[in-house]
């Protein structure tokens, strides 16, 4: 969740509570410290895992996570500990979404190194996931070590061992590295934005192929998608909510219209294989929007629950959302 001008913790908490009250299954936020306009002096940054730790203590049912975090922001051992801590605080309701990171200006503004090439960013992502998941699954009494090109861990005998181990989400639109990394590490492959079911099915096919290459059954992973949404009970409500969608990219992949129209859009994506739907919502103070979707859209869906997201400045695969 990263609205156009950022948000205070109290705003994020109110949105998470509205998500839970409306019947959604999870609340996800994004991982940003700056809006798309780096000169915007009104932006209010918040750190994602700090806020989710607080929300974990103020909610009781919804799953919590980041879709997706930036691997460039945190050392992998620290990330493993932070997520494990939030998971304990939530009673085991946390999931980890992780991506390469992409916003170079944001890194410069906060003194965070930004790898120069996409290859290095993907390499770092794979090593981070190896370390995080390796630490979490290290049996009691054993130590964890890792030697990579970018990160090393030396005989850690006390790694964080969350119980249950948080699910890992990896996704995006890449044709090669993203599906390959997801096949190795992910419990859920996220197809990011998709105009329709056909486009989404093609992304899932790439993931299936990557799983086959390493001998993994692709049916062992959940499949998700991101849907920007502007739902209204009247045409005027639809127009008002659609007007704040952040970009043409988002609008061209959005579900805009009545509850029936939004449900039909989601049904097209679930027919393509999505079992998890993240709804990307822009005005975080419009809690009536969340209540409307919960009351009028969820009832029209089959077995998939779609969840609210707020990410006016987030990249295409970094919303908050909910699923089951």
Can you walk me through this structure?
- InterPro entries: F420_OxRdatse_Rv1855c_pred, Luciferase-like_dom, Luciferase-like_sf, SsuD_RutA_monooxygenase.
- Pfam families: Bac_luciferase.
- It comes from Pseudonocardia humida.
- The protein contains eleven helices and eleven strands.
- The chain is of the alpha/beta class and 324 residues long.
- The protein has one domain: TIM Barrel (Alpha-Beta Barrel).
- Strands 1, 2, 3, 6, 7, 8, 9, 10 and 11 form a nine-stranded parallel β-sheet that branches. The protein has a two-stranded antiparallel ribbon with strand order 4-5.
- It is globular, with a radius of gyration of 19 Å.
- The C terminus is likely disordered.
Indicate the mean pLDDT.
91
The number of domains is 1
What is the chain-wise order of helices and strands? Answer: HEHEHEHHEEEHEHEHHEHEHE
- Secondary-structure-derived class: alpha/beta
Strand content: 15-25%
**Tally of extended strands?**
11
Distance between the termini: 19 Å
Classified by CATH, the class is Alpha Beta
Which spans of ≥5 residues are poorly predicted at pLDDT below 50?
308-324
Q: Approximately how much helix is present in the residues? A: 25-40%
Please tell me what the overall shape is.
globular
Task: Supply the CATH architecture.
Answer: Alpha-Beta Barrel
CATH level-four homologous superfamily name: Luciferase-like domain
Number of helices: 11
Major sheet size, sense and barrel closure? 9 strands, parallel
Keywords: Flavoprotein, FMN, Monooxygenase, Oxidoreductase
Pfam families: Bac_luciferase
Protein name: TIGR03560 family F420-dependent LLM class oxidoreductase
